[in-house]
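As a warm-up, study this chain.
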Amino acid sequence: MTLQTILVGTDFSPESNLAQEHAFQLAAAHEADVHLVHALFQPMIPASLAALPKLAEASKDLEDAQVADAQSQLDRVSSTREAQRLSVSSTIGHGDAAQVLIDNAAQTAADMIVVGTHGRTGFRRLRLGSVAESVAQHAPCSVLVARSHKATKGGYQNILVPTDFSEHSQAALKMATTLVAPEGMIRLLYLWVNPFETQALYAGSEQATDYHQFIEASVQDRGSAIAKEMRELHPTIVFEHQQQHPTEGILDASKGTDLVVMGASTHRLGGVARAIVRHADCSVLVVR
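Now compare it with the structure written out below.
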């Protein structure tokens, strides 16, 4: 997958500024265009107040001031990045932030949306956190939820790719090879639960160990073969596996990692992917 257009949501908070850094570093590496999107949200005027004199005019004046201020900040970011020979455009949308980002991604045929995890404090912090999760859940393209400050010009140093050996996991691994630093490492992780173990142990079967060893060997063979094949794209790909619940295993393995890259089978995230987007300490990329 090539990156030609990267859309980044911004509310000018430190968290969205971090998302911008990830987006611009990716754009520089892939020669992609960056499209900045800012969403203006204005509450509905209650019917009991709508008839008050000059209220509509005051509301319009406030909106105009907000638009002017936002455009000024967007222009400042654009001029700085254009001086670095990056192609930058911007849009101010109106309404729910997540929907504005999703709609703009569809309109611009964006390859990736980059968004921060929360705003400044209090309600804004909760609201923008939900924006990131909603965008990751419903976007028509890949979504990078930026958390850490470990995006570098050369790429990410340590990338974790959870896999279930599906084509969507393969797409995530291939994407990871385009994002990793030349000297960086990709860890391909498979987590599994032995479906026979509880039944065999409960029945007192001596085959419980055999079941475990058979599954473990099969997993190791499959994962090692995939890692070997993908080393043509990046030389340092290691395969790991363990018997553990996927959500817990991925969160444990992601500690100290720069980026988790996960494949999405549909436009709606499954429970594991949604939990990783919500709880991981590092940045998370959902690949579509």
